[in-house]
């Protein structure tokens, strides 16, 4: 369109409203704000923006801005409440001065969940803020006003749940945002932002009333022709020079590909894959591994117990009897056992398995003596507080090698071969202790940036483990690996939560790291 001509320009209603909004703004406007004011979404605006830019009516500028967003931990606290806020609510509700050990049970009374480790964390935060003090294990609130100020912290999470630009954070909460950054409740991320502004040409045409809104159609339909309505519409011209929006390229998830890669390493060394349930009996998760029933790992702080149904069944009474005797007096294993009365009721309680070793003992029970190698790769569950290095759900690889003439040297050789297959070139081993293996060893691999890191725990299953399962002649070499940790090391991932990210940009970035790692491995 020639600027010197006083021709009217008819635009679709949305494009006209967009121009009018920009005309009333003294500065450029972010596209998300434009979409919000026009009561639409950003994607619906893209075609209109491209057409207006092509007509020379608006300017489009792409800038990099820093935004503050909630991490996975922050989203969890948005739902359940910050630990310090939950503790304050307990103190306000009870109106007492409880001891530290009483807090979880008091919180539960008011329907507030507070794990012991969260209590300690909350007390540390409140003490630093001068809200409470601890005197001989008793929590004493210092000021009611300060207690209320802590509760207001929860509102800050609500303010930034949909992302906040760093330069728009109110001065009054900047110090709290900095604290949340240190605690990994929020994080700063760079984001490409589209900003729009009106051109002088468009402003002049708008002021002169030469841009109007009208009904714009893209095709002449039979209804428009027969009704004569075509006389009152503007038929839109197609501009083939405007590129169509690109759909995101489908990318494989790097962590699922890493798990497939590890499986291939096991299979290449003669292992076969076996499987087991996520919901497990304590018998397979603990008792069959000669773990005493009063062991701390079998408490609620370290294991998820099912509420309904809470118990299962063991159909093999002989197996139950052998395991009971082994725990009580050692049975025929040569051990003295643990010297207590074994409780079969506890053995049938249902838990979310805490280790994939339960799959290994199930396999031994099913197959018995012989020569075979088996592995499993799957998820396990433990009550952890989610942070960059810990998760309530993670992946383990568990393996067993069964044979009559196996030695500890065979175990070390297999572990070294697995490490090399996974790209951990330099390894070493040192003696260790595990309740169900003897002798035992921990394996360490050398990482160029992190130095020596532990990648496996291993040993030879004790007689107290294998004999009740029906293993009479064979030795069983056993080992377990934390695959999430290995993946983080090999792909330079700093936050365990990124392993399960659904953000396409994160997936692409670590897919590149995984591809580079595999390519270097194959050289």
From TrEMBL:
InterPro entries: aa-tRNA-synth_II (IPR006195), aa-tRNA-synth_II/BPL/LPL (IPR045864), Phe-tRNA-synth_IIc_asu (IPR004529), Phenylalanyl-tRNA_Synthase (IPR002319), WH-like_DNA-bd_sf (IPR036388), WH_DNA-bd_sf (IPR036390). Residues 256-501 form the Aminoacyl-transfer RNA synthetases class-II family profile domain. One of its GO terms (cellular component) is cytoplasm. It holds the Pfam family tRNA-synt_2d. GO terms for biological process: phenylalanyl-tRNA aminoacylation. Its EC number is 6.1.1.20. One of its GO terms (molecular function) is metal ion binding. It is found in: Cytoplasm. It comes from the Archaea. Its main location: cytoplasm. Keywords: Aminoacyl-tRNA synthetase, ATP-binding, Cytoplasm, Ligase, Magnesium, Metal-binding, Nucleotide-binding, Protein biosynthesis. The keyword Metal-binding applies. The keyword Metal-binding applies. NCBIfam families: pheS, PRK04172.1. PANTHER family: PHENYLALANINE--TRNA LIGASE ALPHA SUBUNIT (PTHR11538:SF40), PHENYLALANYL-TRNA SYNTHETASE (PTHR11538). Belongs to the class-II aminoacyl-tRNA synthetase family. Phe-tRNA synthetase alpha subunit type 2 subfamily. This is phenylalanine--tRNA ligase. It comes from Vulcanisaeta distributa (strain DSM 14429 / JCM 11212 / NBRC 100878 / IC-017).
């Amino acid at each position: 369109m020639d600027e010197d001509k006083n021709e009217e320009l008819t635009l679709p209603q949305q494009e006209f409203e967009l121009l009018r909004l920009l005309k009333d703004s003294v500065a450029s406007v972010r596209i998300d704000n434009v979409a919000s004011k026009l009561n639409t979404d950003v994607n619906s605006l893209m075609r209109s923006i491209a057409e207006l830019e092509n007509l020379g009516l608006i300017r489009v500028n792409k800038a990099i801005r820093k935004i503050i967003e909630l991490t996975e931990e922050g989203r969890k606290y948005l739902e359940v409440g910050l630990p310090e806020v939950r503790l304050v609510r307990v103190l306000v509700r009870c109106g007492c001065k409880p001891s530290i050990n009483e807090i979880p049970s008091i919180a539960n009374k008011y329907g507030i969940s507070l794990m012991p480790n969260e209590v300690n964390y909350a007390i540390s935060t409140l003490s630093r803020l001068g809200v409470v003090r601890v005197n001989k294990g008793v929590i004493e609130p210092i000021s009611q006003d300060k207690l209320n100020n802590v509760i207001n912290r929860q509102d800050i999470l609500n303010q930034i749940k949909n992302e906040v630009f760093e330069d728009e954070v109110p001065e009054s909460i900047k110090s709290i945002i900095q604290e949340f950054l240190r605690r990994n409740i929020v994080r700063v991320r760079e984001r490409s932002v589209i900003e729009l502004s009106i051109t002088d040409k468009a402003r002049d045409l708008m002021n002169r009333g030469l841009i109007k809104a009208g009904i714009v159609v893209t095709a002449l339909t039979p209804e428009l022709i027969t009704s004569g309505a075509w006389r009152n519409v503007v038929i839109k011209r197609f501009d083939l020079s405007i590129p169509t929006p690109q759909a995101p390229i489908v990318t494989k998830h790097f962590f699922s590909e890493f798990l497939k890669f590890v499986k291939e390493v096991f299979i290449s060394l003669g292992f076969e894959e076996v499987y087991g349930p996520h919901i497990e009996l304590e018998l397979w998760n603990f008792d069959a591994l000669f773990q005493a029933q009063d062991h701390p790992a079998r408490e609620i702080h370290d294991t998820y117990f099912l509420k309904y149904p809470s118990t299962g069944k063991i159909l093999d009474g002989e197996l139950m009897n052998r395991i009971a005797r082994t725990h009580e007096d050692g049975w025929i294993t040569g051990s003295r056992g643990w010297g207590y009365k074994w409780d079969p009721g506890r053995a049938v309680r249902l838990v979310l398995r805490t280790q994939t070793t339960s799959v290994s003992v199930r396999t031994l029970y099913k197959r018995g003596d012989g020569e075979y190698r088996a592995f499993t790769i799957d998820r396990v569950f433990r009550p952890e507080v989610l942070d960059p290095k810990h998760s309530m759900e993670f992946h383990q690889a568990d393996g067993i090698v069964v044979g009559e003439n196996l030695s500890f040297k065979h175990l070390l050789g297999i572990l070294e071969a697995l490490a090399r297959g996974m790209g951990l070139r330099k390894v070493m081993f040192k003696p260790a202790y595990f309740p169900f293996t003897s002798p035992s060893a921990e394996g360490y691999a050398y990482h160029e940036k992190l130095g020596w890191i532990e990648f496996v725990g291993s040993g030879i299953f004790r007689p107290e483990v294998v004999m009740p399962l029906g293993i009479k002649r064979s030795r069983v070499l056993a080992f377990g690996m934390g695959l999430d940790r290995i993946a983080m090391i090999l792909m330079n991932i700093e936050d365990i939560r990124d392993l399960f990210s659904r953000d396409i940009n994160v997936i692409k970035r670590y897919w590149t790291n995984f591809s580079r790692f595999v390519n270097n491995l194959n050289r």
